Structures are given as structure tokens and as C-alpha cells.
Amino acid sequence: MSISREKAVGLLHRYIKNPNMLSHCYASEAVLQALATRLGRDREKWGLAGLLHDLDVELVAGDMYTHGKETARILAEHGVDEEIIDAVRMHNETSSGEKRTKEFQHALAAGETITGMIVATTLVYPDKKVVSVKPGSVIKRMKEAKFAASVRRENIMECEKIGIPLQEFVEISLKAMAGIHDQIGL
């Protein structure tokens, strides 16, 4: 692998200070690892893409027209695998100006986006614990346009482009996030 997880975590903490953003990155890592396992792909590679995909979000102040480009540059400087860089660059189509076409690209876009819907759903549960959240609740909330309005449902639905139906995708993602609930504070 081009970069160790330890070095990747160091980069993450160097560039991202917001605790919620850090939790999002760790949740994305867990979801991408679970998707890789489900699809028989490289767990470490997919996990690193999830962990590092938002590295530049604070550098570019959330500007969706540049978000991803700086991360790609930083990752290239650190010798990160080209497939990871490509998936990271393509997770934000606004910045890349291209449409996602590869499995890894779709997986990262869907996997990192579902974490936001799961967090939002968790926060309306009385105990605010991800282990309590049911897949049906997440799917129901996805249909409510005003709920977590900034979460792009079309990105989540890219799970179908990697051959995983929405119900199963939500189950996999919830289980992955529940596995690190202490680390993400839910």
C-alpha cells in the first residue's frame, strides 16, 4: 500500500481540526472497509479513501468547486495510490467536472454520503446512539426532502451502481458505524 494507516491518520489530523469532520472521516473509512469486504475488494485501500476523502475541506473552506482537488494534490505528494486519488477526486463531481464511472468512485460517493444521513437519523433518536438506528428509519428519512436536506440522496443511490440494493447498503453502513460508535461519539 502506498501509505500506512498511521501516516494517513497523521495527515487527517494535520489538515482537519473540526471534531465532527474527523468523525465523518472515520465513519467513511468504516463504511468503505465494509463495502470492500462485501464486494471482495481491497479493504485497506478502500478504507484509506474513506478516511482521507475530505482532507482539504477546511483548506478550501467547504468550496465545492475546489473541494477534492487539493486533497488529490496532497495525496499525490505523499505517494498515495492513484486509484485512491482518483476516487477521492471524483467523490465531488462539482469540482472534478466529470461523471463517476468506476466502482470505487461510486462506492466512495455513496459510502461517505450515507454517513451524513445515518448521523442525522441517529440524532433524532431518543438515545442518540447509532446502534439503536434501524435501516428502515434511515430509508424513511431519505424520502423526507427537508430532513438532512444537504445530504445528496442521488449519491447514496449510487450504491445500486456497485450492485448493492439500498436496504442492504444501509444495513452494511449502519453495522460499520456501530462498530466504531465510541470513536465517532454516537
Write a brief caption for the model.
This protein is mainly alpha-helical and 186 residues long. Helix content is 61%, strand content 0%.
What is the CA-CA span between the terminal residues?
30 Å
Total count of domains: 1
Bin the strand percentage.
Answer: under 5%
Major sheet description: none
Question: Could you say what the CATH topology is called?
Answer: Hypothetical protein af1432
Radius of gyration, taken over Cα atoms and rounded to an integer in Å: 15 Å
Which CATH architecture is right? Orthogonal Bundle
Number of strands: 0
Mean pLDDT over all positions: 94
As residue ranges, the low-confidence spans are none
Q: What is the C-level CATH assignment? A: Mainly Alpha
Give, in order, the helices and strands. HHHHHHHHHHH
Number of helices: 11
Overall form? globular
Helix proportion? 55-70%
Given the helix and strand composition, which structural class is it?
mainly alpha
